[in-house]
Amino acid sequence: MTNLLKLSFSLAALLVVFGQSDASSEDENTPAPAFPYLVPDEKPDRPLSTAVQRNYDAYSSIRPEQNELFTQFKYTKLKGFDYNDGDGTITRRDPSKVIFANGKYYVWYTCRKTPVKPVGMSRAAEATDVIPSADWDLADIYYATSKDGFTWQEQGVAVPRPPKPNPGWRSVTTTDILVWEGKYYLYYQAFMEASGLRGDYCPVAVSYADSPDGPWTPANKIVIPNGAEGEWDQHAIHDPYPLVHNGKIYLYYKSDFDERPELTPSKVRMHGLAIADNPLGPFTKHPLNPVINSGHETTLFPFKKGVAAFVIRDGMERNTIQYAEDWVSFKIASIVELMPNAAGPFVPDAFTDTEDGIGITWGISHFTNAANDWNRNHSVLTRFDCDLSRNVDDPQMKGHHMNLTPEFHYKQGLSGKQRERVTRETAELNKPSAQN
Amino acid sequence: MTNLLKLSFSLAALLVVFGQSDASSEDENTPAPAFPYLVPDEKPDRPLSTAVQRNYDAYSSIRPEQNELFTQFKYTKLKGFDYNDGDGTITRRDPSKVIFANGKYYVWYTCRKTPVKPVGMSRAAEATDVIPSADWDLADIYYATSKDGFTWQEQGVAVPRPPKPNPGWRSVTTTDILVWEGKYYLYYQAFMEASGLRGDYCPVAVSYADSPDGPWTPANKIVIPNGAEGEWDQHAIHDPYPLVHNGKIYLYYKSDFDERPELTPSKVRMHGLAIADNPLGPFTKHPLNPVINSGHETTLFPFKKGVAAFVIRDGMERNTIQYAEDWVSFKIASIVELMPNAAGPFVPDAFTDTEDGIGITWGISHFTNAANDWNRNHSVLTRFDCDLSRNVDDPQMKGHHMNLTPEFHYKQGLSGKQRERVTRETAELNKPSAQN
């Protein structure tokens, strides 16, 4: 790189021209080269654009393929689950993390088996004890096991709806697993009304067992309560997601808030954190909640000293993987695409209180409206794979150009209304006043 | 919100528990509520998480649908272009911006019409005067016009390859249009060797005309030269993209650099800026180049006081739309998906030296390897639509959940090699040492 010194291009002089002479401390007669061809590993001591500064300050590498928290996602259809020909009477969704025990993988999930498909949240008043409103109404928590992660055997109900008036009597959904001091804990959304009557309102309850095969004992109490009136999480504690950190239970959750009926969508979604010394509580909500400003369902895993999070679907920072070294202060680590919805990854060190998190390579997620037909509305579980693990180096997961077909793009086409607007706009250009 | 004062939840006390008491100036006996249910429009005077601070500091709205620089993209197949049944002998790619003149839209683009499909960059030594290496080798600049933006009539060659040794004798590609003081200027990549022999090396040349219908006079000189040896843009000045700002020509371009043959992909791509008082130069490269740290082809448009840019495909900030109020300091304005490649938008105020840019709603982009078959390698032009205009409010463009089908996801499946790795990893878990 010694050739650089020979260049006669004066950076200092140019900075004067561009009115940014204060950005350079060099003598104006010193020739300064343009940014080098080989990108320096360390932030160079020269004026840098705002964007190039981010290369050094915000990311572990400027190359996505060298960034440990960048990945593509690949999907595989699961074997072993029956959906009654996808007629809407059976749904499986919102899987827990996957754990490995007794020589097999375990996953828990929301399962609805009802005589008819859901009527829909907007018609929740028509829901009965056997007719569901939402896809996750009148559901129980089931579980399944697998030797290979692709073919699963449904083992039946783990946690049924408890009798009224216990929390969850209407539906128990969206569970996640904690292993703590040799015991197993399932946290779940505990509905006490059909979703859609007022919103999607619920707190979180918990059941526990000595074995992942159960039997499960419900605590029959609310373990993560809704916030007080006027607080961001007053209506919903969704997607409880426990990890172990710093000798405590760190449980992340999502809430829907800022409801403004005049807007579409009417609500925003963010994630909070609640911390406990004991799996049955009390949980203390973090004073800086919400700690993630976008996203939908919760998916997190220990990574190095900190925790990484999937931020999917909603909010300005959707389609990102974020990282918080202190488990609270989340920043964007990478921008990704085709993220799994409601992912429950296999997190080998979820409960080991690691200070050197390894990351993940796969898990179970779901597709909602899997039939692409609301008259057969149901969800299906799927497997996703990725490379977010420090133990794996899979270049096939690190490509950053998805060459999707023209046909795929044309399916994302203009509506008739949009086509009309376009025609109108072109007509405007032809008016004499618009001609230049 | 007066109820909030009644809450007994003490934020100050909690901050002490969490070791962050310095974050609060309130008396520890003062009850402090959690974050409010209705998100304050202005940044509230209370401790906020890093992520929620970004809501206020980094984005114009926390709701993507209210963010002027957030959009979905929709695609429509163009009528009027023949591709010889997609056999690889005709390609159209890298469209210019679209302009409106003489009662119709104009677009210029790279067009290759060769007796055979490209041999590929890795076999560039086999290229001849009639056998192309890359898809854009042995190309000329064609143009087409349209009354509605959907059906186009190809008008033929605008700028042909000039005779050797003029810049571009091997191929003229990836053009863009400038309208300046009543004249028209086409900037383009001027190849003097088959792409793939050493890389994708070229400078930028220019032709000019009194009418968008030509005839075009080539300046027959390099107008944006490659950087000096050792500089980031020493090999490639790609995708020249002129706009008018501050009474000058602001021409953005892309370069490939940091070539490290041991890596895949071997190069990184960023964008620079060159500024001129005269369309034929001289252009002065900005001393803070590169000004965009990711991306592939250049697509920009005036927006309010500043300029917005598509950052597609490559780099850590791919899949974003960025904004620079000063036309240099780019920051992420939104995270988007299914972005158009090599987009040439219709930018009504591209050349008006506006200080109040309106934005864009549509343009022409391309699909590479459109046949999804390298033996018929060619590219096709397509139309994209979006809502990045302050004159349009199209809620159908602002959705933030694309419910792509399970079948689509399963096409993004595991390779055989990946499946083998997964099997191996599960086997590892079954070893006695891995059992807990």
TrEMBL record, chains A, B:
UniProt cross-references to SUPFAM superfamilies, sorted A to Z: Arabinanase/levansucrase/invertase (SSF75005)
Keywords: Glycosidase, Hydrolase, Signal
Bias (Basic and acidic residues) ranges: 417-428
TM region(s), chain numbering: none
Signal peptide extent: 1-23
Keyword Lipid biosynthesis appears in the UniProt entry: no
Location of the region described as Disordered in the Swiss-Prot/TrEMBL record: 412-436
Family: Belongs to the glycosyl hydrolase 43 family.
Record's protein name: Family 43 glycosylhydrolase
